[in-house]
Amino acid sequence: MSTANPTAKHNHNPRTAIILSILLAGLGQLYNRRYIKGSIFILLEISFILTLGEFLNYGIWGILTLGTLQGVDHSIFLLIYGLISIILIAFAIVLYVANVKDAKKDAIRLRNGEKIPTFKEAVKNIWDVGFPYFFVTPGLIMLAFIVVLPLLFTVGLAFTDYSQSNQPPRNLLNWVGFENFGRLFFETGGAGNNIWQDTFISVFTWTIVWTLVATTLQIALGLFLALIVNDPRIKFKRLIRTILILPWAVPAFVTILVFAAMFNDRFGSINTDILAIFNLSIPWLQDPFYTKIALIMIQTWLGFPFVFALFTGILQSISKDWYEAADVDGASRMQKFRSITLPHVLFATAPLLIMQYAGNFNNFNIIYLFNEGGPAVRGQNAGGTDILISWVYDLTFELNQYSMAAAITIILGLIVTGFAVFQFRRTRAFKEEEI
């Protein structure tokens, strides 16, 4: 007895549907007798070509050449037009692939004799299955132009020669490849000096030291105070906790500006009222070493209340039975801290602590508000306390070294992305361990 499907169309070739869909969106659907859907795809492609074809052609030409007529073509606009064209082409490719897959799927159904849904049934099915996508799609489109486009523009600038002395439309920009990155890492100028390399090494080193020292101190101080306040012998715990959290309640920029006045070399209360007792006067804002010390102390003051509040909640959740069992075993205070308190605290807070390091790595506010990254350093185009993010700000808004600022921004983004990936992996590891 034959089991062949009588409605199967063995001569209906899915490959033909694929080829037709590639040649023109919708032809494969017409081949599959999906006339309404095919007509919609054809109208979409023709409309796309007629309305955006000239813009896309101009945009691709612009991003490849960055202009050919000096004083007429604006390289920055051409770069932006080119990036917009790439995003639009990416959206078009996604729809084109969907068109090809749809034609192939329907062709296979026809060849096997399966029922093909009508246009009304297909619309209903799309609405039922793709309902979330209809609400997500506008956000994704906005994301592409509000977030992705500026990121791509920054990446593009990093590979050009856009600077104060070479600005459009007076001059045309040129693609220079990895030359800007080479100036930061490898290039050596005359007499063995390279201001970009020297400045980058200095700023990057201070950024790492700043991140590690300032963040570690605020975490250590927060943990130390949380342990003291959590001690059962301490009274008035609520009052003490409230006082210690008060610095967190004051806006950070206000605190930074107050400290900037207090550390002023000439009239600041640190020198005139406190250190004057010991006949001392420290150049807090003139000497990079002392400015860095002041910044680390201020950040410790700003950051410890959050860590204190975080650790206080964790310490109160540790079972007292563990400590009682440790007392029975004769464990010392330090042994209980190493074996019970610290592992429990780190297990619960490690991802947040990692993000504290990432936050301080890009802590622009304190660096800029305290002393604008100063004082100046001879032989460098960055201040003595500039970190990477504040150096990028100076290069962009004061020195107009746009391409170099973009190159450093990419390096910054890669480092912060590394922090984020590490944090997410640690979070996943904690969840797996807990399970």
UniProtKB/TrEMBL annotation:
Compartments where located: Cell membrane
GO cellular component entries: maltose transport complex
Record-linked InterPro entries: MalF_N, MetI-like, MetI-like_sf
Gene3D superfamilies: MalF N-terminal region-like, MetI-like
ABC transmembrane type-1 domain mapped to chain residues: 204-423
PROSITE patterns linked to this entry: ABC_TM1
Coiled-coil annotated spans: none
Segments passing through the bilayer: 12-31, 43-64, 76-98, 133-159, 203-227, 239-263, 293-315, 340-359, 402-422
Protein name, entry field: Maltose/maltodextrin transport system permease protein
